[in-house]
Amino acid sequence: MNDKTTKSEDEWKAQLGEDAYRVCRRGGTEPAFTGALLDNKATGTYLCASCGAELFSSTAKYDSGCGWPSFSQAIDAGHVMERLDHTHGMTRREILCSRCDGHLGHVFPDGPGPTGLRYCTNSLSLEFAPDKDSGD
Taking phi first (over 0 means left), then psi (-120 to 50 degrees means alpha), and beta for anything else, what does residue 101 get? Predict the structure, then answer.
């Protein structure tokens, strides 16, 4: 994704609101089992809450039991980037939106096939766009 979205911190705060700003721009985490999209079963596309980039398809979403929306793969490898996260005394692979660098969550190597990955995301980092023919 080459069309980077950049805004000032004040612009991000005004757009996202306090909770989503803390997660998307400050790397926070929403409490497990509280996210609005955790139990969403509708067909469609999950977008970055900060910039609207397409990140995950509902066909890759599954119930991992971890308390956050989980996906087995990104909609396109170039839409989600990774970087090492050494916070909280752990080493994890943080996932971010490639367009705006918004924090999405983390990726773990304990997911289902075909990738074996679990993209563990915050609902506050995502927006859901239902398929037009899904009736949702």
Answer: left
Question: What pLDDT digit, counting tens, does each position of 92-125 carry?
Answer: 999 999 999 999 999 999 999 889 999 999 999 9
Point out the catalytic residue in the list 48, 51, 97, 120. Answer: 120
Q: Is the pLDDT of residue 3 over 90?
A: no
- Whether 48 is catalytic: no
Closest-CA residue to 64 (of 20, 27, 107): 107
Going by the DSSP 8-state scheme, the letter that residue 106 receives in this structure is: E
Contacts of 62 (CB under 8 A, 6+ apart): 70, 71, 72, 111, 112
Helix (H, G, I), strand (E, B) or coil at 46: strand
How many distinct helices (H) and strands (E) make up the chain?
A: 2, 9
CA distance 127 to 36: 10
The percentage of the chain sitting over the pLDDT mark of 70, rounded to a whole number, equals 96
